[in-house]
Amino acid sequence: MNNKKVVIIGSGLGGLSTGVILAKNGYQVTVLEQGIQIGGCLQCFVRRGAKFETGMHFIGSAAPGQVLDQLMHFLEINDKVKLSSLDPTGYDMVSLKGERFKFPMGRQRFIDQMSEYFPDQHDNLVRYCDMVERVANASSIHAFKYAESTAAVDVESQIRSINDVIEEIITDPKLAKVLVSQLPLYGAERDKTPFSTHAFIMDFYNKSAYRIVGGSDCVADALVGVIEKYGGKVLNKQKVSRILCDDTHATGVETVDGNLYEADIVISSAHPQRTVEMLGDTSLIRQSYRRRISAIPQTMGSFTLYIHFKDGKVPYMNYNFYSFKNDTPWYSEVYDETTWPKGYFYMHHCSEEGQKWGKSAVLMSYMKLDDCAKWIGTKVGQRGQDYEEFKARKTEQLLELLENDFPGIRENIEHVYSSTPLTYYDYTGTEGGSMYGIAKDINLGAACRVSHKTRIPNLLLTGQNVNSHGMLGVLVGSIVTCSELLTSEKIYNQIIESNK
Ligand SMILES: Cc1cc2nc3c(=O)[nH]c(=O)nc-3n(C[C@H](O)[C@H](O)[C@H](O)COP(=O)(O)OP(=O)(O)OC[C@H]3O[C@@H](n4cnc5c(N)ncnc54)[C@H](O)[C@@H]3O)c2cc1C
């Protein structure tokens, strides 16, 4: 026990996993969450008996011995989080203007399936897979061997865009589009998003893909249990309004209700923009840092439908579905009143292993917070009739698309609810209501990267804006942040030890 007090702001995956690692290593951890529910993007909600996930829906690389499985053992949540494999012959299905393509798990199965669609591209597909694997493996961060910095990630793949790399390798333009059609998973934009982002996600899911049985809140509950087991606390309804500092260091935090928490170390998993606001006007942080943080672009937000099916009517869909109205997934984020929605992605909720019927599903389509600008500042549930009408109109447009892809499905829907980027903004504080936090842009380079360290020696950052979003991206980020206090070698050895 080193008795150092750590206060962590935010109880999403980043805050909780950072809390687990430090609590296991003798720190006195207190996690403060502004919301009523713990979990951030791991939150679920139940309405009229149907359960819905609001953020994380499926995870990869979690088969025994794979990287996420090893991390779940290290975090001591492996026996609490039950996983259900998606269809290995097609965990994802994409539809480009009605033409469908399956994404199977495993390198060889993937090459064989894609070569069936595009026979003359077999050799290029092999080169593409080699490239994806090279990038994923070159990153010491993803292999969590040293967990020191993102510098080890193959540099070329960080400065070249996804389309630049893929269109050089793949000579069939249609296949080049198919290969990026899961881009809503990482909010990719043409000529901006680095190839490395694509490679990590593709490698992550290609190795294995699972839904979390019972919903992603099981992950949050399990992490809270481990923090408490090691003597830590996770407190809800504790919105931090200020990070308190003396002349050189952070000394603790204050909540909107005036509660004070002293700390030797403060770690924020809130969006960096929110963290900067919590720092007030302290001179410990430079103006140039504040300006840079506020100038970083965000990934897209989403308009989300939560669909409750009638009992025993819709077969459980053991794969995820991505639909694009046009023959390209690119530029889905560029739309106006007449062209929205350009597509959607759609996933069933897994409530039990081997389930026969779909009980609930989510359907997401890109949306900017700007579309909801006139309701910013209003409260959840009290935004007014015009907001409800806006949501009803958008819901109708998306259900029409769904019906097009799955004829007859509408008559099997019992209830449907919706949320906008404003909902995410209000619930998690993520800038712009964005899905995955800050956007990586090759044109901005390091200017759009957020380090886990700040100029305040005992103020660290964690969560999806450090390293990367998603289950693996956030956990690797937590390891990077904790290495600052524990050393990466120590964490690495603990991971190995916990998997013996
Ligand atoms: C719609 C959607 C779908 C997704 N699907 C997947 C998926 O299928 N697979 C996958 O791996 N990933 C997915 N992700 C990404 C993944 O869920 C996130 O990257 C990850 O959960 C983010 O964790 P975090 O801790 O960084 O942030 P968050 O979950 O946003 O947590 C931050 C927490 O900080 C709290 N907070 C903020 N300000 C304060 C304050 N002042 N005081 C106290 N608390 C504060 C917030 O309330 C929140 O709980 C999805 C995300 C979204 C939004």
Structure explained in plain terms:
Among the domains are: 5-40 and 59-75 and 214-296 and 445-498, 3-Layer(bba) Sandwich (FAD/NAD(P)-binding domain); 105-207, no CATH class. The chain has 15 helices and 20 strands. The chain has helices at residues 13-24, 67-74, 107-117, 122-138, 155-159, 162-169, 173-178, 195-207, 217-229, 272-278, 287-295, 385-405, 421-428, 470-486, 488-498, and strands at 5-9, 28-32, 44-47, 50-53, 58-60, 83-85, 92-96, 99-103, 209-212, 233-235, 240-245, 250-255, 260-262, 265-268, 301-309, 320-324, 343-348, 360-367, 413-419, 459-461. 51% of the residues are buried. Residues 147-152 have low confidence and may be disordered. Bound molecules: flavin-adenine dinucleotide. Flavin-adenine dinucleotide is lined by residues 9-15, 32-35, 40-42, 55-59, 239-240, 269-270, 274, 302, 364, 428-430, 435-436, 463-464, 469-471, 474.
Instruction: Please indicate the percent range of residues in DSSP E strands (runs of 2 or more).
Output: 15-25%
How is the main sheet built? 7 strands, mixed
Specify the CATH architecture of the domain at 5-40 and 59-75 and 214-296 and 445-498: 3-Layer(bba) Sandwich
Shape by Cα distribution: globular
Distance between the termini: 24 Å
Proportion in helices: 25-40%
- CATH topology group of the domain at 5-40 and 59-75 and 214-296 and 445-498: FAD/NAD(P)-binding domain
Radius of gyration: 22 Å
Kindly report the spatial arrangement of strands forming the biggest sheet. 8-7-16-17-18-15-19
Alpha-beta content class:
alpha/beta
Looking at this structure, what is the CATH superfamily of the domain at 5-40 and 59-75 and 214-296 and 445-498? Answer: FAD/NAD(P)-binding domain
Low-pLDDT segments, ≥5 res: 147-152
